[in-house]
Amino acid sequence: MQNWLGAVIRFIVSALVLMLVAYLLPGIRVAGFTGALVAAVVIAVLGWVIEALLGKRISPHGRGIVGFLVAAVVIYLAQFLIPQFLQVNILGALLAALVIGVIDAFVPTELR
User: Fold this and answer.
1) Euclidean distance between CA atoms 26 and 35, whole angstroms
2) If phi over 0 gives left and psi between -120 and 50 gives alpha, with beta otherwise, what is residue 27?
3) Mind listing the pLDDT tens digit for each residue in 85-111?
4) pLDDT tens digits in sequence order for the chain, 112 residues long
C-alpha cells in the first residue's frame, strides 16, 4: 500500500514540476494538470524503457551530460505519444531537462 501511495505522490509532484517548467520556459506547453500528469506518466515509462534497454548508467540519475541528454530526448519523444497533452521543441526539451534535473537534486521525483 505504501509503495502505491509513494508512486502516486511522485507522479503528482512530477506533474507539478512539469507545469512549473512549462510556465517558466519557452518551447514547452502542457495542457493543464491532467496533461501534466499524463505527461509525467509517459515520461516515467519512457525513461524506464530506456534504462531497461541501455542500463542504469544512461539514466538521468547518472548526473552526467549523457543523463541530461537522455532526459531531454525522453521529454522530446513523449510529445509524439501524447500530442494533445504535451508540446515541446528541442530547446524546450533541453531547458526542461536542465530545470527538472536541478529541481530533482533538491526534491527527488521519478520524472525522466
Assistant:
1) 17
2) left
3) 999 999 999 999 888 878 777 765 554
4) 567 787 788 888 888 989 999 999 999 999 999 999 999 999 989 988 888 887 766 655 555 777 788 889 999 999 999 999 999 999 999 999 888 878 777 765 554 4
User: What CA–CA distance (Å, rounded) separates 65 from 56?
Assistant: 14
Q: Which residues does residue 29 pair with via DSSP β-bridges, in sequence order?
A: 87
Contact 37, 8 (CB under 8 A): no
Q: What residue ranges in the chain does DSSP mark as E strands? A: 28-30, 86-88
Question: CA 8 → CA 4, 57, 60, 72, 78, distances in Å?
Answer: 6, 26, 21, 23, 20
The C-alpha cell that represents 92 in the structure block: 524546450
CA distance 1 to 36: 24
Cα 13 from chain centroid (whole Å):
11
